[in-house]
Amino acid sequence: MGVWSEQVVPRVTDLALGRPPVRRLRERALAPAHSVVVDLGSGSAPNLPLLPPAVTRVLAVEPSTTARRLAAPRIAAAAVPVEHVGLDGAALPLADDAADTVVSTFTLCTIPDLDTALAEVRRVLRPDGVFLILDHGLSPNPAVARWQHRLTGMQQRLFAGCHLERDIAGRVERAGFTFTSLEAVAIPGPSVLNHVVLGRCAARS
User: Where is each Methyltransferase type domain found (predicted)?
Assistant: First the structure.
């Protein structure tokens, strides 16, 4: 990673995605989490203080050294054990059926090999497990979507590979998951960034 991606982006992300409206959405998204949780792209650990009491352990996956350093105070204050177990969502160093819950909050927009990462989620998630998603993506407004396609290259360069135009829910479904709940919400901010999906899904057998 370059200096910008490694030193600046994690700090900007920590601030931007720690705003109260986003925090409230995180709390809603994480409410069904339980038992052993894999936090895919855990970043500076903003999810940790919001996890429900049913969670017993967190396995964090995060490539950024700076983000992991920013996470240290939250990990120290966590009510459950937290272990960093990997750097790449597309190659999880975990056994099959290792997790009861996988959470991805503002991560699926950035993972370079998303299809492989989603296959890894299916592999490590127990058959009765839940996959919880909160992410921004392709707007249903055609005018906004056109701008997302135009600007996504710049967004990727500025924000560590983040895509503006990914159809997150569609990609998750095509990877073999079925949504048991799915909601589209708007968060304050630029129209190319404010279309967010919040969902809970399970792997199809």
Answer: 38-133
The CATH code of the domain that includes 68 is: 3.40.50.150
> How many independent structural domains does the chain possess?
1
Distance, CA of 173 to CA of 177 (rounded, Å): 5
Range of the domain at 72: 3-203
Up-side HSE of residue 18: CA atoms within 13 Å toward CB?
Answer: 14
Q: What is the DSSP string of the chain?
A: --HIIIIIHHHHHHHHTTSHHHHHHHHHHHTT--EEEEEET-TT-TTGGG--TTEEEEEEE---HHHHHHHHHHHHH-SS-EEEEES-TTS--S-TT-EEEEEEES-TTT-SSHHHHHHHHHHHEEEEEEEEEEEE---SSHHHHHHHHHHHHHHHHHTTT--SS--HHHHHHHTTEEEEEEEEEE-SS-TTT-EEEEEEEEE--
Query: Sign (positive/negative) of CA torsion 52, 53, 58, 64?
Result: positive
pLDDT digits (tens, 9 = 90+) for 61-101: 999 999 999 999 999 999 999 999 988 888 999 999 999 99
138: Cβ contacts below 8 Å, ≥ 6 apart: 145, 148, 164, 165, 166, 167, 168, 195
